[in-house]
Structure formats: C-alpha cells, structure tokens
Design a protein that fits this description.
This protein is α/β, with parallel strands linked by helices and 549 residues long. 27% of the residues lie in helices and 18% in strands. The protein is globular, with a radius of gyration of 36 Å.
C-alpha cells in the first residue's frame, strides 16, 4: 500500500522457531529499529566529526583557489598597485628574485637629458654607467639625428612622449619640466622586470652606485618610499621647497609608490602647472598620495658656486651617493679638469666605495697637531689641536647659488682665511694601492697646486711644511656598516721616528673601540702638554674660493 513500509525482520528466538514476517507501519520506527537500535552513541559522534572535517577541507581549498586566482593583490595589501596595473596593463614580474638583497640590477635609472645637451654632458654619465650592469635609459626630447651613432658607453635612450597637451606658464616654467616629470611614469610603463627602485637624475649627475645600493638596501622596497636630499641653498629651498628631493642630486621611488604615481601623475601635473621644476611637480603629486621625503645626506644637489672643497672635505657620516652641477663649480683637484678630478676620486671609490670621502679625525699629541682625512680626496694638517666639532664643520670655500653671497646655507660653515698662517696645510689624493692578501688599502696624499710663495713663514708652520705627503692605510669598509647606527671611524698618527721618513706621515684608520672618544683631553700620556687650541675667531674671514691661488 502507498505509505506503508513493509520490513522483513528475522527474529531469532528459540531454536527451531521459523522466521516471522512483521509489518511495521511507521518508517522511522523501522529506521530506529535497524540503525539506532544497533548503533552506539560514540559511533554516531565519530561519523559527525568526519563529515564536519571533510566539509572544512573542501571549503578551505575553495577559498584558497578563489583568492589566488582572482583578487590576490587586494588580499595581500597593495590595492594601489592593483588599481595601477588594472589601468595600465603592466605588472611586476619577480620570478625567483623575492627575498634577495637589493643589488644594482633592482634599480632602473631614468636620466633626464636632451639631444642638445647630451653630447657634452654624457661624459659625466659615462663615469658611472656600466653597460650590461646598470639598467635604465636617457630620456631625450627627440630622436637623435640618423647620422649620429649612439655611443656604446652611454645608457640606451628613449624618446619622451608628447607633452603639448599639458598646461605650463611660459613665464615660470617650460614644457621640458613636464616632460622630465613624466620620466617616472614612462619608466614604470616600460614594464621592465625585477625593478624595486626607480632612480631619477639629470644628465650631469654622477652617481656612486655601490653606495646607492647600500642606502636603498636599508629600506623595504615593498613599501612606499620617496628618498633623496634637499638643496644646500636656503634661497633654493625657500623658493621651491624644503620638503622635496632635488632632481639633480637624484631621488629614488620604490616600486609600489611608482605604481601609484604613474596612475595619478598626468592629471596631477596640470594641478601643479605653476611649479617651476620637474622635481617640484613630482613632490606636489607625492604630497597628494601622502608620502613624505625620506632624507639621505649622501644625495648632493651642489647648489653652490665657487669651490666645493669645504663641502666635500667635511662630508657627513653617510655614504656618498651623488654629485651634481659639477660644471658650475671649480675643479675638485687643483691643476686638473673636472673630469680628471672625478676620475681620481673614482679610483679611490672603486677600491673602497663605502669609505669614499668619509671624514676621519685624529691627533698627534707629541707635536700638538690635528689631522682631518677625507678618505679618497684630501687631508688637512693643523699646527694645533682643534676640536672635532670644529673639524667636522665645512670650510666655506663657496658662495650661495642664486645671489653669490657668503650666506646662508642649510648647514653650518666656518671661514677659510686668506692668510696661509691661519689655515691648515692641505694635501690631495695622489694614488691608491691595494696591498696583501687582506686587501689593505693605502692612499697617498700630496700637496698640489700651491705655489711656495703662498706658504706661511711663521716658525710654528716650519715642521708642517716639511711634511710632503700622507700615507693613509685602512681595511675596506664593508657596505653592511651603513646598516648600523652611524659613527665616524677613528684613526691614529703613527710616530715617524722608527725608521720612517719624517716628511711622510703615516695614518691608520680603524673602528673606534667601545669607550673611545675623540677629544683633545683623551690622551692620558701627554703629561699636561700645553695644548694650543684653534678657535673660530683665529680663522680670519676671506672671500670664499680664493684660498687656492
């Protein structure tokens, strides 16, 4: 009958009894009789747990597959990158590069140039560019003439896109500022693989790439970073901004920030059309994104006039990353062209990149002398004990950028006297040698370009004038040193009486010991020597940059 369940149950009773057919009207009663009636509660619990576990596994696999194939970038946190890629069609390809330390291959350079300036300025770029090692492009305003062969020693070039549709006021700027500002966007849209940092510079910027890598390696390239330096000129900073990175000194933008900047840049440029330079326009757009400048002291715009000696001979405790405007300052070495001067500095840089132009200070208490070493560039010898605070203050051998005035600058300075008896004796790098299996580096410094009639005739200067050169020895400074808290290294003057010619002073640079300080009072064996300390008032004022001649 419909709705009636007939269930046959074999009833086993006493021996000899035949099976009995029993009809059960309620199907649930039949189920209970067959299943529940013969199953223990513990078995039911086990079955339910197994079903739950299978359900969880299936659900987890489904969720993982969904997110990995559809919205991975939004799930893991870079929504800006995802939006940027969706608009431009470019994506970052990392391959097996994830987790490696930042190296030169992770940097893409964007060099602002033009066909009119490249022929002369390429000599600066070719000092640091290494074909098949460094990556990037010179961005030109137009295609070079067909009969011009592009040099193999130069970076490859790209031609910037048309910017005629952008706004710019003819009285405060030019279309070239818009073109140069878009180099970041155009570089990003090339879709070059394994890029962590986009580094912008001018065609007369000299980069020290090993130190650039060391600086950028301290930052997480997966975060939004805008890294560079300000101008040395108060005039420039007041006119443009204290908070922006100046493009000639170079600046670096991390990949995620470049992705977001590329997305908004074109619209943003029209909002800041009144800004003069490309670097100021970039800063305006980055302000809208909300990313401030991270300052690094090794980026040098060199917004000064005259002689940059004082600035470089007292370099801050930071790796030297870049130099700019080298056509607009005197040659770094006397009696040399600027390119010859830079090649000499690069000779030292190639031997020990991290130590280049790093200042080290030491004293010869037996003679009450002070020595300041700018490694790979210059040595200063003083006939008195001068405090470290004063020695680390740059001599003002230069003028302000716009007005050619004696002040102000964004850092402290001290005057360089015209009187040779009121200034140190200065030595310049002569040669670099690497010695022994431990690769100890010996640099030699000699007096260059100073006529004898400019020497001091004072008797206390006579022993100093007998010193013809300095030999400075040091072991290579590891780039990882810059990952620690900054501290200037120490040095010692080796006594020249033990078989070494007194006309040559030996200096050894080494790490400072844990409790070592640099103080005229720190020598315990001077037996209360009379220390004649030079003061700022002893150094008479002079016109900047006239001390060499």
């Amino acid at each position: 009958m419909v709705g009636e369940a007939s269930v046959f149950i074999r009833l086993e009773g006493k021996k000899g009894m035949s099976p009995t057919r029993q009809t059960i009207q309620d199907p649930f009663k039949a189920w209970k009789s067959q299943v529940i009636g013969t199953t223990k509660p513990v078995d039911v619990f086990k079955v339910l747990m197994k079903i739950t576990l299978v359900f969880c596994i299936v659900a987890s696999i489904s969720l993982i597959s969904y997110f990995s194939l559809s919205t991975q970038s939004r799930w893991f946190g870079c929504q800006q990158c995802d939006r940027g890629f969706g608009r431009s069609g470019y994506q970052k390809i990392t391959g097996g590069d994830v987790g490696r330390r930042t190296n030169i291959s992770h940097i893409l350079f964007g060099i602002g140039g033009s066909t009119g300036t490249w022929g002369e300025r390429r000599r600066y770029c070719e000092l640091w560019w290494k074909p098949n090692v460094t990556r990037g492009f010179v961005w030109l305003d137009e295609t070079p003439a067909e009969n011009d062969t592009w040099p193999e020693t130069s970076p490859p070039y790209q031609v910037s896109g048309d910017t005629s549709g952008f706004k710019y006021p003819s009285w405060t700027g030019s279309a070239s500022a818009v073109r140069l500002a878009r180099i970041v966007k155009e570089s990003f849209e090339l879709g070059v693989e394994n890029v962590r940092w986009f580094v912008m510079g001018d065609d007369d910027t000299v980069f020290f790439t090993e130190n650039l890598v060391a600086v950028l390696g301290r930052y997480d390239h997966n975060q939004m970073y805008y890294i560079g330096g300000s101008s040395e000129s108060v005039e420039q900073n007041m006119m443009h901004s204290y908070d922006m990175a100046y493009g000639g000194g170079g600046f670096a933008i991390s990949y995620p920030l470049a992705a977001e900047l590329a997305r908004v840049l074109d619209e943003c440029l029209d909002r800041y059309y009144l800004f003069y330079g490309s670097d100021q326009k970039i800063h305006g757009c980055l302000s809208e994104i909300g990313v401030p400048l991270t300052r690094e002291l090794g980026f040098h715009q060199v917004d000064i006039r005259g002689d940059a000696y004082g600035l470089l001979a007292a370099h801050p405790v930071a790796p030297l990353v870049s130099l700019h405007h080298l056509d607009l300052v005197q040659s770094l070495f006397p009696s040399m062209t600027q390119i010859e001067s830079l090649n000499r500095v690069i000779t030292a840089y190639e031997a020990d990149p991290a130590r280049t132009i790093q200042q080290t200070i030491c004293y010869d208490f037996s003679r009450n002398w002070s020595v300041s070493v700018a490694w790979g560039y210059s040595v200063q010898l003083y006939p008195s004990v001068v405090t470290a605070e004063e020695l680390e203050t740059p001599f003002q051998t230069f003028y302000t950028w716009r007005s050619w005035s004696t002040h102000p600058f964004t850092f402290n300075t001290r005057p360089m006297s015209e009187d040779p008896c009121e200034r140190p004796i200065i030595y310049f790098l002569d040669r670099v040698e690497t010695k022994g299996i431990n690769r100890q580096i010996l640099t030699t410094y000699k007096r260059l370009g100073f006529p004898p009639d400019r020497d001091c005739n004072n008797s206390r200067y006579a022993p100093l004038l007998a010193v013809h050169s300095f030999n400075v020895s040091a072991f290579q400074l590891r780039p990882e040193s810059w990952e620690k808290a900054p501290r200037r290294q120490c040095c010692e003057v080796v006594d020249g009486r033990d078989g070494v010619e007194r006309s040559v002073i030996q200096v050894k640079i080494k790490e400072c010991s844990q409790e070592q300080i640099l103080s005229p009072a720190s020598d315990r064996n001077t037996n209360s020597h009379t220390v004649e300390a030079a003061s700022k008032s002893d150094l008479g004022w002079c016109e900047a940059a006239s001390w060499r001649t």
